[in-house]
Write a structure and sequence with these properties.
Elements: H1 5-22, H2 24-30, H3 40-59, H4 63-90, H5 95-118
Helix pairs in contact: 1-2, 1-3, 1-5, 3-4, 4-5
């Protein structure tokens, strides 16, 4: 497939989603979180399957359904970015994780907007 904002975002979202579900400890370390063997692995798996579902919402659809899939992904990514800001401010996330996680989430939201505007 052609490299577009939508294919880029879908590939990244699928990789992160499958990784978070299948190997939450490893994926957590990539994002600066040490959670192997903790209850947070449950939340990582919930996040992971959400990302896989968001990919299915755009890859397996067209027209208005696909646009809705992009919009839902944009909302999730933007709110993930806000959650990173909150976590950085209240100290529940290490500052570096809050910054990298927030930037990643807002970049994903930007890719989603670009995909929506291109009506991929």
């Amino acid at each position: 497939p052609k490299l577009t904002p939508g294919t880029t975002l879908s590939a990244l979202r699928l990789a992160v989603g499958v990784g978070a579900y299948a190997a939450p400890g490893l994926t957590g370390r990539v994002f600066g979180l040490e959670m192997a063997g903790t209850p947070q692995t449950y939340l990582a798996r919930m996040f992971g399957i959400r990302d896989v579902a968001l990919v299915a919402a755009v890859v397996g659809t067209e027209g208005e359904a696909r646009r809705l899939g992009w919009k839902l992904g944009i909302a999730c990514d933007a709110l993930d970015g806000v959650a990173a800001i909150i976590g950085g401010r209240d100290g529940s996330l290490p500052k570096a994780t809050a910054i990298s996680g927030g930037l990643t989430a807002f970049a994903a939201a930007g890719l989603g907007v670009a995909a929506l505007l291109a009506d991929e």
